[in-house]
UniProtKB/TrEMBL annotation, chain A:
Residues 3-146 form the NADPH-dependent FMN reductase-like domain. InterPro entries: Flavoprotein-like_sf, FMN_Rdtase-like_dom, NAD(P)H-dep_reductase. Gene3D superfamilies: 3.40.50.360. GO terms for cellular component: cytosol. SUPFAM superfamilies: Flavoproteins (SSF52218). One of its GO terms (molecular function) is FMN binding. It comes from Gracilibacillus halotolerans. PANTHER family: CHROMATE REDUCTASE, NAD(P)H-DEPENDENT FMN REDUCTASE LOT6. This is NAD(P)H-dependent FMN reductase. Belongs to the azoreductase type 2 family.
From TrEMBL, chain B:
Residues 1-146 form the NADPH-dependent FMN reductase-like domain. Belongs to the azoreductase type 2 family. GO terms for molecular function: FMN binding; oxidoreductase activity. One of its GO terms (cellular component) is cytosol. This is DUF438 domain-containing protein. It comes from the Bacteria. InterPro entries: Flavoprotein-like_sf (IPR029039), FMN_Rdtase-like_dom (IPR005025), NAD(P)H-dep_reductase (IPR050712).
Length: 200, 395
């Protein structure tokens, strides 16, 4: 069974993105072993000169390395990815490169109409930076709008069409993970390029 | 023109800081630039609202009182750094410091592209409804290969770059003025305040050194001031000077009177300076405001007086957090007016609100609910963190 790491893209105590990932974890428990990863205990990134990483960052990096793929669910703050998620990604590409060529699926939930569409576009660009260089699943947007009303008391997604879409995307993601594993030609180069990136 | 420059990096060494320092120094004929550092800004967390922390409030005030803002951003992971994003989230959550503020974006980076992608993201962020800044279009200033860009004195080496930067900044100065027109008629900028009280008003006591420790004794003698059991007729009542003193000493707050010549002429002296919420010493009475404040605070003092004198507002309120969690000390600068409505000076009263709030809660059996408690309050139509419009709370 594939092992996936599902990253909650916010440090907030209440988050419908966390709820969405919990739903994904339960709903697809027969297809994949999904672990939910919080980012709230990661300290603020400040480019330490000694390049020493906080323990929690090392732990998350190891989990990403060990996972077959990563799901990131992002809210949208000010038309963009929240500072806390940027912060996590800053650390996770500072002298370490767990994301290079890692298959990633992006989801997002928001209270309003647009379901974090702008933040997801930014996140794609961010994950494409040389020091992250993830393999983002193409053409696979999952936007959950009006997320406060989206779940029932048992935390199930109420809208059956959304569930079907998610099921399709998830199947595709598992296939995408397989596929990316075959795209190995440029991997060493990407690793090198990530390592060459200068944070000075 | 007064601008602030936000250093978009919290790192100890930053070429974006260097760039802003160069702008401040080299283009000082165009504007006055004050740099803002983001190092002490905590990571934004909507469950732990720190809008009222000193660092956020200080930045908020500085931006509010500036004519425009220059943001210098590095680029990490093809976007702006977490530290800068964090500040923008604080400034658009429960406060909206950048609303309708003209903003110019610059950026320096180690590579050729010079933070081009981060600048594009920053434009989109500044355009989000909770932020609502007015970003100058075009005039992208990207400084690539920064390591070779500055000489040993921190000056940009390339003449063409210096000239191009000047053109961009001159356009920004014009842009700030255009935005002012866009925003509708604004009052003339307030004239500078005479914080050394060199002027004279009807009640100024002449011939006595304002800085003297015994200014009160000398001034009282000079004007033949009454004291003790002499009656004074008031609106509305009749008290002796002693009774007025008892009355003012029993006020549950520290009161300070600064007249409209910016001279500190009274406080209700009941405690030694070290036991006061805002320390005052008997010898300070009579001082011009510039003398009894540290130099670093004078800009803020002036801003407060300008707001009150111009009638922009009748009260400026500031929470001073240095007393620890057991107190909630608020300084209120309340404008005073004579019978014709003319500005007559400031009544500054300093109160610890904590006991009042505790008493109220105890009496009514109510509890405080943090503003970060989002899910329970969304029914009020509030758009909270996950909302499409951004980190701002509305309603």
């Amino acid at each position: 069974m594939k092992k996936l790491l599902a990253i909650v893209g916010t440090n907030s105590d209440q988050s419908t993105n966390r709820q969405l990932l919990q739903f994904i974890q339960r709903h697809f428990s027969k297809q994949a072993d999904i672990e939910i990863q919080e980012i709230r205990d990661i300290p603020l990134f400040n480019k330490p000169e000694d390049r020493k990483l906080p323990e929690i960052v090392e732990t998350i990096a190891n989990k990403i390395e060990a996972a077959d793929g990563v799901i990131i669910s992002t809210p949208e703050y000010d038309h963009a990815v929240p500072a806390s998620l940027i912060n996590a990604l800053n650390w996770l590409s500072y002298g370490i490169y767990p994301f290079v060529d890692k298959p990633v699926m992006i989801t997002g939930a928001s209270y309003g109409t647009l379901g974090s569409s702008r933040a997801q576009l930014h996140l794609r660009q961010i994950l494409d930076a040389p020091e992250l260089k993830a393999r983002i699943m193409p053409s696979s947007e999952f936007l959950l709008s009006y997320s406060l009303q989206a779940f029932d008391e048992e935390n199930h997604l109420k809208d059956q069409t959304q569930v079907e879409k998610l099921e399709g995307l998830f199947e595709d993601f598992l296939a995408f993970v397989e596929m990316v594993n075959q795209l190995t030609e440029v991997h060493e180069f990407n690793k090198r390029e990530a390592a060459n990136f200068s944070w000075e | 023109m007064k601008l602030v420059g936000i250093v978009g990096s919290n790192a100890d060494v930053s070429y974006n800081r260097k760039l802003l320092q160069f702008i401040k120094k080299h283009y000082k004929s165009l504007f006055e630039l004050e740099l803002i550092e983001i190092k002490d800004v905590p990571l934004f967390n909507q469950s732990d609202d720190q809008t009222n922390s000193e660092v956020i409030q200080r930045i908020h005030r500085k931006i509010l009182s500036a004519d425009g803002v220059i943001i210098a951003t590095p680029e990490h992971n093809h976007t702006i750094p977490a530290g800068l994003k964090s500040l923008l989230e604080w400034l658009s959550f429960n406060i909206h410091s950048l609303e309708n503020k003209p903003v110019m974006i610059v950026g320096a980076s180690y590579f050729d592209q010079g933070s081009s992608r981060a600048q594009l993201h920053l434009r989109q962020i500044l355009d989000a409804p909770g932020v609502n800044a007015i970003v100058m279009p075009g005039n992208e200033f990207l400084l690539g290969k920064v390591k070779e860009a500055f000489d040993e004195y921190g000056n940009l080496k390339d003449k063409g770059t210096v000239e191009f930067l000047r053109e961009c900044l001159e356009k920004f100065v014009r842009f700030v003025n255009v935005v002012a027109v866009l925003e509708g008629p604004k009052k003339e900028p307030a004239p500078p305040e005479d914080l050394y009280a060199t002027g004279k008003i009807d009640t100024t006591v002449e011939g006595v050194d304002m800085n003297a420790d015994d200014w009160l004794e000398q001034a009282a003698e000079a004007v033949g001031a009454v004291e003790g059991n002499t009656y004074v007729k008031l609106n509305r009542g009749l008290l002796t000077v002693d009774q007025i003193n008892y009355f003012l000493a029993s006020m549950p707050m520290e009161l300070t009177y600064a007249d409209n010549n910016n001279q500190f002429i009274y406080y209700n002296h009941t405690l030694p300076a070290e036991e006061m919420l805002a320390s005052r010493t008997p010898g300070q009475v009579g001082n011009p405001l510039a003398i009894c404040h540290p130099d670093a605070a004078l800009k803020n003092v002036e801003w407060v007086i300008q707001q009150l004198r111009s009638g922009e507002t009748d009260a400026v309120r500031v929470h001073v957090p240095t007393h620890g969690p057991d107190k909630y000390v608020v300084h209120t600068y309340q404008a005073m007016h004579d019978n014709d409505g003319n500005y007559a000076g400031i009544n500054e009263y300093v109160v610890d609100l904590k006991p009042h709030i505790d008493w109220y809660l105890q009496q009514t059996g109510q509890k405080l609910v943090g503003a970060g408690d989002t899910v329970t309050s969304t029914d009020n139509g509030a758009e909270k963190a996950d909302a499409v419009s951004g980190a701002s709370i509305k309603g």
